[in-house]
Amino acid sequence: MDANGSILGSARCWRVAFGRRPNVPVGMRLHVVSENIAYRRTLCTMNEDSFGINGDQACGGMSRRLFPRATLASGATLLVGRAAKLFAAASPSDNSTFSIGGDLAVNRLGFGAMRLTGEGIWGWPPDRENALKVLRRAVELGANLIDTADAYGPETDELLIAEALYPYPKGVVIATKGGNTRPGPNQWVPDGRPEYLKQCVDKSLKRLKLERIDLYQLHRVDPKVPMEDSLGALKEAQSAGKIRHIGLSEVSPEQVERARKTVPIVTVQNRYNVTDRKWDNTLAYCEKKRIGFMPWAPVGGTRGMTSAALEKVAKDHGLTIYQLGLAWLLHRSPIMLPIPGTSSLAHLEENMAARKIQLTAEEWKTIDALAGQA
Question: Which domains does the chain have, with CATH numbers?
Answer without folding.
Answer: 14-86 (no CATH), 97-373 (3.20.20.100)
